[in-house]
Write a structure and sequence with these properties.
heterodimer, A: 335 residues, mainly alpha, two-stranded antiparallel ribbon, two-stranded antiparallel sheet, globular, B: 292 residues, ABC transporter involved in vitamin B12 uptake, BtuC, 11 helices, 2 strands
Amino acid sequence: MGSAFNKIFVGLLLILLVIVPHVPFMDPYLLFIFDLIFISVLVSLGLNLLAGYAGQISIGHAAFYAIGAYSSAIIQERSGIPFLGSMLMAAALTAAIGYLVGLPAIRLQGLFLAMATLAFGLVIEEILIIAEPLTHGPDGMAVPDAVIGPWVLTSNTNGFYYVCLIVAAIMTWVAVNIVNSRTGRAFVALRESEIAAQTNGINLAGYKTIAFAISAFYTGLAGALYAQAVTFIAPDGFTIFLSIQFLAVIIIGGMGSILGSILGAITLVLLPELFAKMPAEWGAPMIFYGAALILVIMFMPLGIAGFVTKIRYNLTLRRLGAEPQLGQAAEIAAD
Amino acid sequence: MFLQQVIGGLATGSIYALIALGFILIFKATDVINFAQGEFLMVSAFMAKTLIDWLHPSNIAMWIVVALMTLAFAALFGMLVERLLIRRMMNAPPFSVVILTIGLSTLMIGLAGGVVWDWDTYIIESPFSNKPVEVGGVIITPLNAGIVGITLALIILLTLYFKFTKIGTAMRATQQNKQTAMLMGINVKGIFAGTWALSAVVAGVAGFLAAPILLVDTNMGFVLIKGFAGAVLGGFGSIPGAIIGGMSLGVMENLATVYLPSSIKHVAAFLVLLLVLLFKPDGLLGFTVKKV
């Protein structure tokens, strides 16, 4: 099960995803669900690079998502810059704000940082309402249709599906490369021990702020696409509960794992479809995400991805004729 | 005018101080920040509401019964959380325990709104009247005076408890060094359970006091961030810091509503938190205990 297997698997998956819009039973709503999955993959990759790899908790990622969504929509509405440009500008702006939010991370230890990001999220939520001339305040704003060259890509169309697919595929490839680069290894080092990382010549301040900026870039990009997909955005769509959902997703999927980010993103999109059928007053999403966070962190701290790694490890052992040793497998999965 | 706002701010400040105190008690003993502290307060407030609906307290004795039942419930709840969840995570990294308490807070909101109670907002009565009284040129309400008075009384009680009782001393010993405390024959696990119970009781008092001024609903736990801001303002990790910080935050917030544009009101506390974390992470009083 080496990298050849992985390459074939990824290739097949990509071909499948390219064909998806053309299968007979496809309808616009199902296509929309796929769009949301690609967008969520971007968010969970971004948050996982920050929290899973670099070890910096953020409970304010809904704010980055909101900044991406709103700035892309506002740029299109005000300046007439078409979608791809507005998306990149929005992501760059979000990254810049992420860099600023990362600055206190230089001085703050984990738990204080978590609180600071929480406060940041609440401040942004409030700013979206106060900055009415730009954001249309609490009523929310309609998002202009995405225009790319001669094409107008409304939500639920094949064109928009391919935009989401391409962006998600490129950014997943980028994430894999970040993780396997000097930067990715520095992230892991500072997660494991800041003192040890510093002793080895890793610039803590630099890498922490870079982690925030990269993470915010991913989330801002996702926000810009999300605005196009839902066509209407309002401040109450970006609450703390969304930030907690994002966090739950990477923990359920698997902290510090690209595969985990993707698996988590799929659950993030599919579960609400299930909850939508239940009466809202049951509070099912909150009960589910709360319970899932508790159970996963207690009994499966490496998430679904850790579980998959464990099974693959045991299969390999069996193929080699050795007895599967669960304890050992878990240790290896933990690395 | 200025003095009036300061006095008014002390009541909300007391609630913040109690939340901050609840945080610090757990943080000092177990190195965990309990993100569900606000929900402990919310659950106690809902419990108080249920008891008031059931018993209709009319005299002071009945009110004391309601208060004691609420606090007993809070203590039991705190112990249960420690026993079922936190104790199993004793050797896990703090990161995991933080995630666990975030999950717990979300779960408690869901259960409180969806299963046990509902998503409505309630105004509940209080043993103290809300009729303004003029004292020396400043208008105060018995409600606000009661909140500040009970908070101060609780703080004095806790100080005496930590100084003069055997369990209080054992708790302080555990806060200083777990291993040594264990060697001295202190039941550290028991102390942890006791600390969670105590912290939940402090949150319970806050919930009971806050109910008439904050309104009871499933979102009232968000006041947690204000409590945290107060604790950071005073210097995280110290009990006097938490109390002074919480009180000052309440006063600052009240002054901000008068002297700054009204849109700042909601975010004043968060801005204070961000500014203090950025420029003076040891808090204004510099009490911070480095432990994380």
